[in-house]
């Protein structure tokens, strides 16, 4: 009897620990998702990366949005699409990967949130450890009306909501666009981000960058910089002064997601690039991602459906 009970107990604890492994990220996974700290991204050497080295490319993903296909009931379709994207990432070996928000469909206060975060962590921990994985917060990650609490929950799982980093002579700024869209629940966060951004853009080092890029979840605009306010853009009240500030700092391009299809526009010389979803599409563009080639004097970028990705990148 004692023996049977011991075997049963051992079997139960083995089962429990395997469940734990499926649900919870390991310490190593944790470290990968805690790189955005102290308003920078630790995987990149802050000193060395300020110098231009050679042309490179990175991959921009958006809206993995685990749970969207089934209204938070299942994660199978997103899992399949993300695993397909990750296989491309590991084959192509970009300089870095950035996921521009709506990592999950549930918001932090919803019941299915932690399970979706766990699945995201589990899948994206398979990205080659040599390839930095930068995560950006979207409206689903911190809510349509973000608060200090929802931002703290995001921070616990993915790190800072806004930060900057250098890669090979290029300066990159990641913004929390949900507070730009609706600051009413966290006006102090919008103010701190604004003060911080001003310092970042005025830093004499920024002027020496080959390019300055901005990454965020919401597009500033879809096609024209003065288009009327709507669900998918930043309200003119905050959009107009921010665009002026970015253009004055020679920002070359803003990269976003949120629209679940591609869109493109310009404000002066600055490109506004909206990228379709890895997860569920809302238009004719299939699930996919963007490849951005960075040269000393310019950039080239193209969106690829997951079934249409080249074998390698020149
Ligand atoms: Zn969104």
TrEMBL record:
PANTHER family: METALLOPHOSPHOESTERASE, CALCINEURIN SUPERFAMILY (PTHR43143), SERINE_THREONINE-PROTEIN PHOSPHATASE CPPED1 (PTHR43143:SF1). It is an enzyme of class 3 (hydrolase). Its EC number is 3.1.3.16. This is Serine/threonine-protein phosphatase CPPED1. Belongs to the metallophosphoesterase superfamily. CPPED1 family. Residues 1-22 form the signal peptide. The lineage of its organism: Bacteria, Pseudomonadati, Planctomycetota, Planctomycetia, Pirellulales. Its cofactor is a divalent metal cation. It catalyses: O-phospho-L-threonyl-[protein] + H2O = L-threonyl-[protein] + phosphate; O-phospho-L-seryl-[protein] + H2O = L-seryl-[protein] + phosphate. SUPFAM superfamilies: Metallo-dependent phosphatases. GO terms for cellular component: cytoplasm. It holds the Pfam family Metallophos. Residues 59-261 form the Calcineurin-like phosphoesterase domain. One of its GO terms (molecular function) is metal ion binding. It comes from Roseimaritima multifibrata. InterPro entries: Calcineurin-like_PHP, Metallo-depent_PP-like, MPP_CSTP1, STPP_CPPED1. Keywords: Cytoplasm, Hydrolase, Metal-binding, Signal.
């Amino acid at each position: 009897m004692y023996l049977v009970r011991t075997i049963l107990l051992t079997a139960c604890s083995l089962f429990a620990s395997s469940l734990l492994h499926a649900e919870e990220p390991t310490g190593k996974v944790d470290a990968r998702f805690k790189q955005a700290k102290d308003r920078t991204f630790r995987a990149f050497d802050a000193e060395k990366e300020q110098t231009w080295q050679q042309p490179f490319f990175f991959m921009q993903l958006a809206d993995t949005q685990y749970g969207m296909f089934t209204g938070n009931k299942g994660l199978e379709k997103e899992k399949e699409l993300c695993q397909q994207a990750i296989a491309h990432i590991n084959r192509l070996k970009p300089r870095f990967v950035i996921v521009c928000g709506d990592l999950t469909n549930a918001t932090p206060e919803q019941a299915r949130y932690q399970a979706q975060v766990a699945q995201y962590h589990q899948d994206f921990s398979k990205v080659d450890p040599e390839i930095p994985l930068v995560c950006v917060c979207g409206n689903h990650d911190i809510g349509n009306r973000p608060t200090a609490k929802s931002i703290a929950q995001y921070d616990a799982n993915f790190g800072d909501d806004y930060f900057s980093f250098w890669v090979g002579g290029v300066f990159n700024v990641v913004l929390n666009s949900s507070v730009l869209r609706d600051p009413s629940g966290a006006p102090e966060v919008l103010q701190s981000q604004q003060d911080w951004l001003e310092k970042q853009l005025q830093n004499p080092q920024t002027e020496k960058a080959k390019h300055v890029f901005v990454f965020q979840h919401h597009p500033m605009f879809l096609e024209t910089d003065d288009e009327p306010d709507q669900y998918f853009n930043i309200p003119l009240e905050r959009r107009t002064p921010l665009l002026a500030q970015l253009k004055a700092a020679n920002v070359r391009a803003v990269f976003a997601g949120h629209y679940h299809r591609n869109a493109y526009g310009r404000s002066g010389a600055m490109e506004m690039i909206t990228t379709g979803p890895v997860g569920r599409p809302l238009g004719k563009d299939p699930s996919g991602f963007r490849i951005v080639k960075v040269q000393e004097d310019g950039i080239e970028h193209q969106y690829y459906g997951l079934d249409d990705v080249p074998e390698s990148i020149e």
